[in-house]
Amino acid sequence: MFSALGNLQPRQLAAQILNFALVLSTAFMLWKGLSVFTNSSSPIVVVLSGSMEPAFQRGDLLFLWNRGQETQVGEIVVYNVRGKDIPIVHRVIRRFGGGSAPLQLLTKGDNNAADDTELYARGQSYLDRSKDVIGSVVGYVPFVGYVTILLSEYPWLKTAMLGFMALTVVLQRE
Amino acid sequence: MGDTKISPHSLAELKNTTDDALGNYLRGLKFEQDNTRLDVRLAIGYASVVIAAATFAADYKLGWEATKTWTAVAVVAYALLNGAFTYWMWAVEKGCVFTGVREGNKISVASKTKKHDPTYYLTISSANSGSKQITAPFTTWFTADGYFVAKPFQQWLASSVEAIGNADSKNALRDQRDEIASPSPEVELTPQGNGTADASGTDGKAKGSKRSKRKG
Predict the structure, then answer these.
(1) Within 10 Å of residue A158's Cβ, how many Cβ atoms?
(2) In what order do the strands lie in the sheet with A127-128?
(3) Using one digit for the tens of pLDDT, what is the confidence trace for B101-136?
């Protein structure tokens, strides 16, 4: 299998490596393109906890849209707690401001007993719509995101998958 | 030419091995390979990869908000470059596996296979003698278990294509060449000797039964 690579000219080897690099970079640029289109830093997120049951289960894939700045009560938003990189998916239960004043939101998980005030950063009582919110949920696909949860809980899976992909693309010449 | 074994059932492997052998053979015959088409493809491809890598680095270092505009620009640039890349591969390369020059004669070789058809279709465009298509089944130079045998492949090429036959007269069998193109002056039948015609003047006895059929 590898001897086939050894017989290649340097330019052809460069071409094979280019094939693999293009797979990675196209995937990445598609993701970035979607980010630009939705104006969200993370247009697709995976539900990590059961705090929104029965609406969303752990492992559901959510599609976000961040161009509507007038978020209403009852919309489901995804936000990052200031200083942490974990996205939280909860429902808006109160809003303050809006219009010319900056919009502030209070959220709560459907399956939680209390609102999110304890989850926010120290000293923070409300979410700032323009700064903290990544987007509102406009659609979802159930269960598909469980792979991502597995990949983050078992990081060696990521390396194994990438290595396998690299091998297949570089050695294949169809 | 290494003795690598391939799967004789995979049309892609048959074609790729033959394409590689063709390139090696022609380079061995001192055809100077013209790498422009491949270089352009590599340039466009790696340019787009560099843009993607730069976007990744900027995003990693500076975060989403700061790099939003640059990312938008980069995505558009990437899409354009990728489009150019695909266009180049489809329109310009068009199955070309070798372009080269030898003694002022420029040739361009493109290969093709058809689905479920174990035949090698070769289109050769030569500056001296125009364009020509030749075909042969892969079984001509592959054994049943997938080994590539260089000799019959080289003989087929040298006999069917004048430019290659001129470069490699050892492999160009007289009978087949005469069928395709009348002899050019350097390969005229020598009047003396045993009647074997041999352009390069080396011993022709090793060629076998076909040569001995020719009488003086």
Answers:
(1) 12
(2) A44-46, A61-65, A133-141, A76-80, A87-98, A101-108, A127-128
(3) 888 888 888 998 898 888 999 998 888 778 889 999
Shared domain for A124 and A81, answered yes or no, is: yes
pLDDT in tens, A83-110: 887 889 999 999 998 888 889 999 999 9
Residue A85 touches partner B, C-beta closer than 8 Å: no
Q: Is the dihedral of CA A30, A32, A35, A41 positive or negative?
A: positive
Domain holding A137, by residue range, is 42-142
Instruction: Report the half-sphere exposure of A64 (CA within 13 A, side-chain side).
Output: 27
For residues B96 and B38, what is the distance between their CA atoms, to the nearest angstrom? 10
- Is there a single domain that holds both residue A22 and residue A99? no
Is pTM beyond 0.90? Reply is no
Is A5 part of any domain?
Answer: no
Q: Which two tokens stand for residue A45?
A: 């997120």
The answer to whether B56 touches B122, Cβ cutoff 8 Å, is no
DSSP string, chain B: ----B--TT-HHHHHHHHHHHHHHHHHHTT-EE--HHHHHHHHHHHHHHHHHHHHHHHHHHHHHHHHHHHHHHHHHHHHHHHHHHHHIIIIIITTEEEEEEETTEEEEEEEEEETTEEEEEEEEEETTTEEEEEEEEGGGTB-TTSBB-HHHHHHHHHHH-HHHHHH-TTTS-HHHHHHHSPPPGGGPPPSSTTS---TT-S--GGG-HHHHT---
Phi-psi region of B135 (alpha: psi -120 to 50; beta: other; left: phi over 0): beta
Is A138 found in the same domain as A55?
Answer: yes
Nearest to A29 among B13, B65, B75 (CB): B75
Positive or negative, the CA dihedral A169, A170, B1, B5 is: negative
Q: Which residues contact A32 (CB under 8 A, 6 or more apart)?
A: B55, B59, B71, B74, B75
Inter-chain contact A28–B55, Cβ cutoff 8 Å? Answer: yes
Q: Is residue A160 part of a domain?
A: yes
Residue A141 C-alpha, separation from nearest chain B C-alpha, in angstroms: 25
User: Number of folded domains in chain A?
Assistant: 2
> Tokens standing for B174?
């007289």
Catalytic residue among A40, A42, A60, A116: A116
Contact A71, A95 (CB under 8 A): yes
Residue A157 located in a structural domain: yes
